[in-house]
């Protein structure tokens, strides 16, 4: 396994590769969800590149915020996990390497898809995500790239970016990995106390009630808002492809998405309906 920190070294390392290349983009602080992406990539490709980069563009105020400053950075432990999972190359640049002239002038804009749901609460977030992913696609030139379904809006935005910009990469979606208690795996879970984690289960329980019992959507919002220790950001049911709201109960495939704040930690989850 190679740990690479510069774009030039990455390009050199990939120049002679003739087989299929996979990319698994991450921000580090790895968990079982990330490893499921690596396992899927390893099974389908000749070479697997995992990136570790905490991207300031997708945080509030271009990273001038506590959320960015406090985001867990565990490169040494992450590298050991990725090596044991069979990753061939880890690309772990610093901010100056990715943005040598500071904040870029040219961005990928994600329009209405990126302005709703998570984007309404985190303006500019998906523009930052799409911009850094486009840079990674340009550097690695992967045949396939792997994204978790937990970040369902991100997955939809990336798929649309690939379609609209005619990017030659196959986007692979990997199912959500959950803990034994049902909480979706997330790097942010490490910020939860035992009480916070128990309170956070209200989100997955509400999504399951929507999927399995088709409870009233307004009732679901009210119950989630009233759950102990939970502040509701949003709970919506949308088209999986366009992210546009659908009527409830839905007559076709739909996606229920929610975001809550528990303690000081913001969590997202979703389930197919």
TrEMBL record:
Q: Which residues bind beta-alanine?
A: 58
Q: Copy the pathway line from the protein's UniProt record.
A: Cofactor biosynthesis; (R)-pantothenate biosynthesis; (R)-pantothenate from (R)-pantoate and beta-alanine: step 1/1
Might you report a single GO cellular component term? cytosol
Mind listing the UniProt keywords for this protein, alphabetically? ATP-binding, Cytoplasm, Ligase, Nucleotide-binding, Pantothenate biosynthesis
Give the enzyme class: ligase
Please list the reactions this protein catalyses: (R)-pantoate + beta-alanine + ATP = (R)-pantothenate + AMP + diphosphate + H(+)
* Subcellular location(s) per record: Cytoplasm
Q: What Gene3D superfamilies would the database entry show?
A: HUPs (3.40.50.620), Pantoate-beta-alanine ligase, C-terminal domain (3.30.1300.10)
Annotated binding of ATP, by residue: 27-34, 148-151, 177, 185-188
Detail which positions bind (R)-pantoate. 58, 154
Tell me a GO biological process for this protein: pantothenate biosynthetic process
> Has the keyword Cell inner membrane been applied to this entry?
no
Q: Which Pfam families match?
A: Pantoate_ligase
Q: What are its E.C. numbers?
A: 6.3.2.1
Q: Which domain of life is it from?
A: Bacteria
Q: Which GO terms describe its molecular function?
A: ATP binding; pantoate-beta-alanine ligase activity
- Active-site residue list: 34 (proton donor)
Family affiliation: Belongs to the pantothenate synthetase family.
| Self-association state and partner proteins as the record states | Homodimer.
Q: Which PANTHER family match?
A: CYTIDYLATE KINASE/PANTOATE-BETA-ALANINE LIGASE (PTHR21299), PANTOATE--BETA-ALANINE LIGASE (PTHR21299:SF1)
Q: What does this protein do?
A: Catalyzes the condensation of pantoate with beta-alanine in an ATP-dependent reaction via a pantoyl-adenylate intermediate.
Other remarks in the entry: The reaction proceeds by a bi uni uni bi ping pong mechanism.
Q: Name the NCBIfam families on file.
A: panC
The entry's protein name is Pantothenate synthetase
What taxonomic ancestry is recorded? Bacteria, Bacillati, Actinomycetota, Actinomycetes, Mycobacteriales
* Protein encoded by which gene: panC
């Amino acid at each position: 396994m190679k740990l690479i920190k510069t774009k030039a070294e990455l390009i050199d390392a990939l120049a002679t590769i003739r087989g299929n290349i996979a990319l698994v983009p991450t921000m580090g602080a790895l968990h079982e969800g990330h490893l499921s992406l690596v396992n899927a990539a390893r099974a389908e490709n000749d070479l697997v590149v995992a990136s570790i980069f905490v991207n300031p563009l997708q945080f509030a105020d271009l990273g001038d915020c506590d959320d960015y400053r406090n985001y867990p950075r565990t490169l040494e432990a992450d590298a050991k996990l990725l090596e044991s999972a069979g990753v061939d190359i880890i690309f772990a640049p610093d901010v100056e390497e990715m943005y040598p002239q500071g904040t870029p002038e040219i961005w990928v804009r994600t329009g209405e898809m990126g302005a709703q749901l998570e984007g309404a609460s985190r303006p500019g977030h998906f523009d930052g995500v799409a911009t850094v992913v486009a840079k990674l696609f340009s550097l690695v030139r992967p045949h396939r790239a792997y994204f978790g379904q937990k970040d369902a809006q991100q997955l939809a935005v990336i798929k649309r970016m690939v379609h609209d910009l005619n990017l030659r990469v196959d986007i692979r979606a990997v199912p959500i990995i959950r803990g034994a208690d049902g909480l979706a795996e997330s790097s942010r879970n490490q910020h939860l106390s035992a009480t916070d984690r128990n309170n956070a289960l209200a989100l997955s329980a509400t999504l399951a009630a929507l999927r399995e019992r088709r409870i009233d959507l307004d009732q679901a919002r009210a119950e989630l808002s009233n759950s102990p220790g939970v502040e509701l950001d949003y709970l919506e049911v949308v088209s999986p492809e366009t992210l546009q709201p659908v009527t409830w109960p839905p007559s076709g495939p739909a996606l229920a998405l929610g975001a809550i704040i528990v303690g000081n930690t913001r969590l997202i989850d979703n389930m197919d309906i």
